[in-house]
Amino acid sequence: MANPLLLNPRTYDPAHLDDDTRRLLRATVDFFENRGKKALVDSYNDRTWYADFLDFVAKEGLFATFLTPAADGAGTRWDTARNAALSEILAFYGLGYWYTWQVTVLGLGPVWQSANPAARANAAQLLADGHVMAFGLSERTHGADIYSTDMILTPDGDGGFRATGGKYYIGNGNVAGLVSVFGRRADVDGPDGYVFFAADSRHPAYHLVKNVVNGQMYVSEFRLEDYPVREQDVLHTGKAAFDAALNTVNVGKFNLCTASIGICEHAMYEAVTHAHRRVLYGRKVTDFPHVRRELADAYARLVAMKLFSDRAVDYFRTAGPDDRRYLLFNPMTKMKVTTEGEKVIDLLWDVIAAKGFEADTYFDKAAKDIRGLPKLEGTVHVNLALILKFMPNHLFQPAEFASVPTRQDAADDEFLFRQGPARGLGAVRFHDWRGPYDKHADLANVAVFREQADGLCALLLAHAPSEDQQRDLDFLLTIGQLFALVVYGQLILEQAELTGLDRDLLDEIFAVLVGDFSAYATELHGKAATTEEQAAWAVAQLRRPVRDAARTAAVWAQVEALCGAYEMRP
């Protein structure tokens, strides 16, 4: 019987989405399945540019349909629910296929936020013609520090500019029909001088330098030399250009969670199938207790990743000027889900050992690529620091909100392109996090974790970080990890209730979270900046997960059923 929680190409049918979306998603799965595993792994190993995939995208109008807002196309919309589904599928087959999609999303962000009708029409036509896009923000010297950009625009005297400068680590920069480029005016100082403009990689003043990574994807370095920027190419100026950069990342970095999920799902099928069929020392590998524990832990973490991410979609789609809760859940998907993906792969790798290095496996690619996701669109530390801004209001100042339903309707998520100024995060309000925990208090490990979450609140009230500790990012990030677990558990519980998740599995997930909270409390205990009172608190929060042999056996049966449930055709 197919596991309804994990993507399985053999049985995949997104019946909850509209017919056109359903057809396109299924066609994407069929494209990869018809190519087969040998073509998939050979093209990765040989670092072959995925021209055949981009031909498929163009032929089906895939990116055009999914990434053109309704106002700019016909029969199109920007729908976070179906975008998440496509993102997961693409990563299931390889990070490179996901990456060309991801940087197209980022490249379009400044365009769809722009009031420039010519630029919007041009982007829509390029998508319809099958082009991909790029996001020209980071630079070799400054990274993504947009305060320090060296892309200089000099007025040309006719209402336009001439742009000169380099960009680094720019995906799709080799073929992009449109590159959204961030720069600054030579004649205007400060934030008023920022400019976002559209460039074309085919223009003679656009110079492709090299691919900066050793991989199948093309992550370019390029230079503009006296590139003509016409009035119709200007997307944003001044502070609006700065806001467009940050708001684009707000939209785009959500896709990193579904990429991590897709990679882990494929790797899990392969790992469980290999381990369950393998006999060592006269015993099936999966009969060893430590193997069962590691595989069950990986499975629980993977399901938790999906539950949190699916629920976060609903908050994205319900967002508006008066409901900005997505601004917390978004860096959570980026930071927490992607690092959980690393843990899943590590657990699986401990089980399959040397098999994970073999060139003809998917796992070999997963083990390499899963590391990149926590490091894209801001590091884990940057996103943890962002998450901390929401902690006081989330834990201590709940507000009333209408219940947010599951959002899989065929609607255009147009608010994402009018988010407004990228500030005021500390003022964002949230519904009471305790509600979902109270509803599941009868589950043993939910109850234990709730004690730990209440303990965190007590720590912050009685022994809050001092001014010196608040300047010590190493100390603060551990507090951030503890807070992130509370938020993570909250949305997992909300989604579990909406989907009727198996209660044994939910309790097993929280057994994992109890252990994780204890581990971070131990880390806090050891920090040089931790006071004696805070260290005593940390020791007092250590908890053992509640064990239940019947529950563990029930969850193991779900893991065991993954053996042979999906194997990519040769």
TrEMBL record:
InterPro entries in UniProt: Acyl-CoA_Oxase/DH_mid-dom_sf, AcylCo_DH-like_C, AcylCo_DH/oxidase_C, AcylCoA_DH/ox_N_sf, AcylCoA_DH/oxidase_NM_dom_sf
Molecular function per GO: acyl-CoA dehydrogenase activity; flavin adenine dinucleotide binding
Secretion signal, residue range per the UniProt entry: none
Residue span, Acyl-CoA dehydrogenase/oxidase C-terminal domain: 242-389
Any matching Pfam family: Acyl-CoA_dh_1
Top-level lineage group: Bacteria
Key word Metal-binding present: no
Keyword flag Cell division: no
A single GO cellular-component term on record: plasma membrane
SUPFAM superfamilies xref list: Acyl-CoA dehydrogenase C-terminal domain-like (SSF47203), Acyl-CoA dehydrogenase NM domain-like (SSF56645)
Keyword line: FAD, Flavoprotein
Cofactors required: FAD
Protein family (similarity comment): Belongs to the acyl-CoA dehydrogenase family.
Protein name: Acyl-CoA dehydrogenase
Organism of origin: Catellatospora chokoriensis
Origin organism lineage: Bacteria, Bacillati, Actinomycetota, Actinomycetes, Micromonosporales
Gene of this entry: acd_2
